[in-house]
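Sequence, C-alpha cells quoted for completeness.
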Amino acid sequence: MTQPQTQNQSQKKTRRAMLEEFVVAHPADGFARYGLAMECASTGDNAAAVENYEKLLASHPQYVSGYFQYGQLLARLARIDDARRILTSGIEAARRSGDEHAASEMETALAQL
C-alpha cells in the first residue's frame, strides 16, 4: 500500500524547508525565525543564518537568546567587531528583561573575544 503523495512529500522535506514555510506563514513568530537562523547556522549556511538573525533582532529586539547565538556565529566567522556589537546589545536587552543569567553568559562571551 502506498502513501498519498502529499504525505511522502512532507516526509522528505528538510527541517530547514519546514521552518522556512512556517516563517512565511507566521512572519511575526520570533521563535520560528530563531529556529530557522539556528538551523541555517548548524548546516553551514552562514549567510542565511546572518540574514535570519538580523531579521529576528530587527523585529524582536527583546529576543535575548538571538543575540547570544548571533554573537557566537559572528565570532566563529571572525567578524569580531560585529560580534562585540551584537553581544553588547544582547547584554542590554537581557538586563532590560531582567535576565541576569543571559547577560552574564554574554559578558563572558564578550570578554573572550
Q: What stands out?
A: The domain at 11-111 is CATH 1.25.40.10 (Serine Threonine Protein Phosphatase 5, Tetratricopeptide repeat). DSSP finds seven helices and no strands in the chain. The mean pLDDT is 92.
